[in-house]
Design a protein that fits this description.
With 182 residues, this protein is an all-alpha fold. Helices cover 54% and strands 0% of the residues.
């Protein structure tokens, strides 16, 4: 028994089929006639597509999750630092994750990859106050995007299966810190 596919089935025409224009029309008039006929067919196809795909659930796609470029640590240029210390620290932490790798559930894994807080800590170079300020701005940036349900930077980091979102949040936090003059 042959299968039928709704997207391929053609609905019965609702109007009489278009007839060929008389030969006495000029080229411009014939082109206008064909343009009108094609517009009608495209409108019908659009409606048929919408009807045939209305049952499919879709989620918006963040292009930052789709468009990626290969990262080669030796070819990655060092980041252009922000003039403010917290923003510059967050930018260095972002670059650290890009070049050294991202991990979860630990500050540093056996391969040297780091979580968000681990990258901030190594880039703070022992300045606990700067590290705390950076973690505070990062948590604020995360809560702005994901809501107040996020408890901490480590819990946010560990909730992800890849480093894309955590790295993007470090980058956004750097911009937020710079805008605040931190």
């Amino acid at each position: 028994m042959p299968q039928t596919h709704p997207a391929i089935d053609h609905p019965a025409p609702t109007a009489a089929p278009a007839t060929a224009p008389p030969a006495a029309l000029s080229l411009e008039e014939r082109l206008a006639f064909v343009n009108a006929a094609m517009s009608v067919r495209l409108d019908e196809a659009k409606v048929a597509y919408e009807v045939n795909t209305a049952h499919i659930d879709t989620e918006p796609v963040d292009l930052a999750d789709v468009v990626t470029v290969p990262l080669t640590p030796t070819l990655q240029p060092p980041p252009q630092s922000y003039p403010t210390p917290v923003a510059a620290l967050l930018e260095r932490a972002h670059h650290r994750l890009l070049t050294s790798g991202w991990c979860k559930d630990v500050l540093v894994d056996e391969d040297g990859a780091r979580c968000m807080l681990g990258a901030i800590r190594i880039e703070a170079r022992g300045d606990g106050g700067l590290e705390a300020d950076a973690a505070t701005v990062l948590l604020d940036a995360i809560r702005r995007k994901f809501g107040d349900d996020v408890d901490s930077v480590p819990s946010f980091n560990d909730a992800h299966g890849s480093g894309r979102v955590p790295m993007r949040m470090l980058d956004q936090a750097a911009g937020l810190a710079d805008a605040r003059g931190l």
